[in-house]
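Dear Dr. H.,

I hope your travels went smoothly. While you were away I took the liberty of generating a structure for the chain from your last submission, since the lab meeting agenda had it listed for discussion. I wanted you to have the full record in hand beforehand rather than looking at slides cold. The sequence, exactly as received, is reproduced here:
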Amino acid sequence: MALAANMIVLAFGSAASAGAPSLAQILDSSPPGDWRAVDPAELLVMTLPKGRVVIELAPQFAPNHVMNVKRLARAGFFDGLSVVRAQDDYVAQWGDADSSHSTGEGRLRLKAEFDRRYAAGEPFVALPDPDTYAAKTGFAGDFPAARDPKTGLTWLTHCYGMVGAGRAIDPDSGGGAELYAVIGQSPRQLDRNVTLLGRVIDGMEILSSLPRGHGEMGFYQTPPERITIAAVKLASDLPPGERPGFQVLRTDSATFAAVVQNRRFRRDDWYKVPAGRIDVCNVPLPVRRTPAN
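The corresponding predicted structure, in token form, is as follows:
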């Protein structure tokens, strides 16, 4: 599957020319089968004063952290806590690893899940272009990822909107009680140094427009600056009428291959010299809303 998708990506290179379809046209003409419904059991919904932020979780990369965050959410751990940090061109952070809130069956700290081994033949849609930080980059399901064929390891990459578990110096001092989302340029130097466990698929504009903190590393200095979290719930635990629905474009589809080539060879009127290559964090991962279910 991964090999076929890669061949599709490369085949579009020779077709990149003036008059090629726009990104919107590519998506509008995509067949239904190229889209996949996101399981509501893997959607985390955080309600803030300005709206909801929806996070798609990545249990295939951080199974223990994802399970722990689900347990914390079901225990109401995050409810009433705050967004405590908004560092310009970097991250927004929320939660509190030192909170006295009940964790239910969850834990405040877990063993890090920075990377994992991948199996031979495991689906991975690789980009044809070189990367500064990894031997190979591409997409594992809905997520931007990297691989090292020499070590057999794979990991998620710190692209815009990715969500990770904050930690202290000890690699095993995180667990999901403190979470952050990338709101600026992709800090790829963090790859394999923090456990990434998902990505924001809706409401990113809420996080990216938060007032910047003026303390060290963008932390808010006084309680009034902090943004209170009304609730963090799993979408599957919400009443059907309140449950958000989403579809994501399958990264192993012909439509996604066309999207990649569209971004590698920009033919918009504004672009005069297409780059002919792309970074993993500059490839859009299209998402569309569906009726609540």
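Two observations you may find useful: Confidence is low (pLDDT under 50) at residues 1-17. The two ends are 30 Å apart (CA to CA).

With kind regards,
E. W.
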